[in-house]
UniProtKB/TrEMBL annotation:
Keywords: ATP-binding, Cytoplasm, Kinase, Nucleotide-binding, Transferase
Protein name in the entry: Guanylate kinase
Native source species: Lentibacillus salinarum
HAMAP family assigned: Guanylate_kinase
Domain Guanylate kinase-like: 6-184
Length: 204
């Protein structure tokens, strides 16, 4: 029997495109996907649990992990580090489960550099006008900040060429269907099957 490793899927795209919404809907349908648990230096909040919400580390511990190359990506927000632990991802993949990571574009580029065998999916807005409406509808940001976010989004859209697939998020159900199709097709890629088959022949 072919013992298939899991695949790392990275969903990314500009702020306001609906990454979180697509990811939540995907996970409500697929119980065989593992969500990549992030690591952070921020304090644990009431109701949160180690290894469920985050892996909690001190600043020193986190910085040692960065130096040792133990993070697939990391960033700093409001004096706290956040990152994706390599060991957790690799262990879960070896157990045969797919790992799904929802992340900003800059983080996705770090993951691509550190784990190029991942599958990178870019979630694309139906139009820049629609993206602007979504950012404005949040109602949490000033006009200046909305313009900054839009400019950043345009720069991130320019990085689309670094991705394997592009999914337009004009309808959440349709977008999730496409992501599920990508997951299925990646497991059927000739290169993956051939590699597993050759390994099986060696073992026999």
């Amino acid at each position: 029997m072919i013992d298939e490793n899991g695949i790392l899927f990275v969903l990314s795209g500009p702020s306001g495109v609906g990454k979180g919404t697509v990811r939540k809907e995907l996970f409500s349908r697929a119980n065989d996907l593992a969500y990549s648990i992030s690591m952070t230096t921020r304090e644990k909040r009431p109701g949160e649990a180690e290894g469920v919400d985050y892996f909690y580390k001190t600043n020193d511990e986190f910085e040692k992990l960065i130096e040792a190359g133990e993070l697939l990506e990391h960033a700093r927000f409001v004096n706290n580090y956040y990152g994706t632990p390599r060991q957790y991802v690799e262990d879960t993949l070896q157990d045969g489960r797919d790992v799904f990571l929802e992340i900003e574009v800059q983080g996705a580029m770090q993951v691509k550099e550190n784990f190029p065998e991942g599958v990178f999916i870019f979630l694309f807005p139906p139009s820049l006008e629609e993206l602007k409406n979504r950012i404005v509808e949040r109602g949490t940001e000033s006009q200046d900040l909305v313009l900054q976010r839009l400019k950043k989004a345009q720069n991130e859209i320019d990085m689309m060429d670094a991705y394997d697939y592009v999914v337009v998020n004009d309808d959440v159900d349709a977008a999730v269907n496409k992501v599920q199709s990508i997951i299925q097709s990646e497991h059927c890629r000739r290169e993956r099957i051939a590699k597993q088959y050759k390994q099986l022949l060696k073992e026999e």
